[in-house]
Give the backbone structure.
Amino acid sequence: DVVQAWRRSLKARPPAVKETDANFPGNDRKFADLVPEQIPRSESLLDCMRRTEPLWDFIKRDLIKGENVMVVAHANTLRGLAKIIDGIGDEEIADVSFPKGIPVVYKFDNKMEPLLPNDKGLTQIHTSGQFLEKPGLLKKALDTTKEWEASVPGTMGYNLPNVAKRMSTMENALLYLKEEQKMWKGATSTSRDDKMDEVDRGNNDGEILLSGSTSVKNDTMGVNDDDERFEEMTHEVKSMENVSVNLNSLGANDLFIVLIRHGRTPHNKLALFTGWEDPPLAMEGEEDARWAGRLLKKHGFQFDVVYTSWLYRAIQTAWFVLEEMDQLWLPVISSWRLNERHYGDLTGKSKKMVANIYGEDQLKRWRRGYKIRPPPVSSYSFSYPGNDKRRIKYVKDIRISFTETFCRSIEDRKLSIHRKFPKCESLFDCMNRSIPFYTEKIVPEAVAKGKRVLITSHENAIRGILMHLCEIPEECMNDLHLPNGVPLVYNVKRKCISLLDDGTGEDPLEKYDFGSAAQYLFRPCEIGEDEDWYTGPPQQSS
């Protein structure tokens, strides 16, 4: 009865928690940026609601700009927002409830006053927000919520049904075809060409055969590459005998950056040019990311901020890594500048198809030429980023295209400002956006302030950052391979890359194929811990 009295009362506070208690928020590093006066030891319902008032000011600012805002929070904080929006009194707010997992939509007029939904809209007393649920299910959810509120705290909520992973019809069809081909191959003798074809298709068995060199073991974490795998390498591979990997080279107080290439996707498994196309992680890719998270947690890593691209596979990788590390609360900053290289008109096509149409030599020039671009997409192609409403709305740091603006304004019969989105990119083009994003955004905003940074991105974007950090010659960049889901730890002060010991005792250079440029990636740590490493942003040449 006493507990329920605390829960039902608007102003009564439960007993305060002691600062020595493990549940005191001041002992949790996620609240480290709060001053002592801001850390609550106990809260009434009214205290919790009042916390939302400053948040409403930020939300209202975005709404006035014309943005759509989604708030995912807790019952009492949502009640606090509803209290502010609808002007609900202290007594009436007790009648308002927010069932779990059911969206409530508020719409506003030009004066930021909430609009009442139409007669068919489902609302609850004292509020103008509309439930997006069928009446029967909504009543059941509200009744269930009341039952939980009347029970002892700690009651577990209901589990949402599992949702099938997003996969296109093309991916389903191609994966089915691939399984049929595997069955056919299993019934016939396998020639050397067949083995190479298996590598092209991303199988995890066997070896990658290199012409003019010994074979390299095909790693299980990232063989399915969307840029530098699936083809027989024709360049001369330099000896790796004198190259050693730095393992766990961080000191107790060393500042670090961890870079992780996203986990595997269905496009990787099918050897398709992915680029800016947006497939989710495959089941293997989810495990890639979770494995990386478990490994980082095992070695005691903690982060302060996460940077990722705008593409689903990189964002998913970040979330799975953080989930395994119990750090899902970290701020995640997304930027299109960390996107994969745009493959132009090759996007979505298989590498074998492109080789059949244009020839093997042309395919290799597009893939291995540092400044050679693939064929561009049309302005009206599905693969052109300028036709994606998300990018049109949110990308502000690309110059305006006068040609696209003129053509689209004629088509729309009104002024339609359009930006110069890439229609194709070389490796050089991709690096020209990822390196400045690192030096002008990540370094001054995070690294220079002593924050521990996690970057989950794509092979070519990460290559650019590594080229800058490790001073890798541009002629060697196409010889650098990055396995999926393997954390690369950069020691900021000592300026070196290291890998984490996974406990297997295997040599990472034998387990993973980093390519012949590994000799630049894994240079010895040469800089002393006390030397100054940050001298400000790079000076622009006049």
Q: What stands out?
A: The two ends are 74 Å apart (CA to CA).
